[in-house]
Amino acid sequence: MARYDLLIKRSAIRELEAVSTQKLRRLIVKRMRTLQVDPRPPGCEKLIGRGRYRVRQGPYRIVYAVDDAKLEVTVFKIGQRKDVYR
Interior CA angle at 10 toward 5 and 12, to 5°? Predict the structure, then answer.
């Protein structure tokens, strides 16, 4: 299986920096890195009408898109469940 490039939007980086604890930030980064190997892991869900996916990491959600032609995973949003889908 090919390894995907991980692209993170600037807005997602700012959202990651706003995460309350360093431990949670590390877990989120680790989860994003696993998307390079398997962009559609067990537990991911395809979002309706956007062509994007979401994966959970504790109380946070990572919203991303997969481009199989370019072998890229682009992270768009990182946030708590109550805020991330708005």
Answer: 80
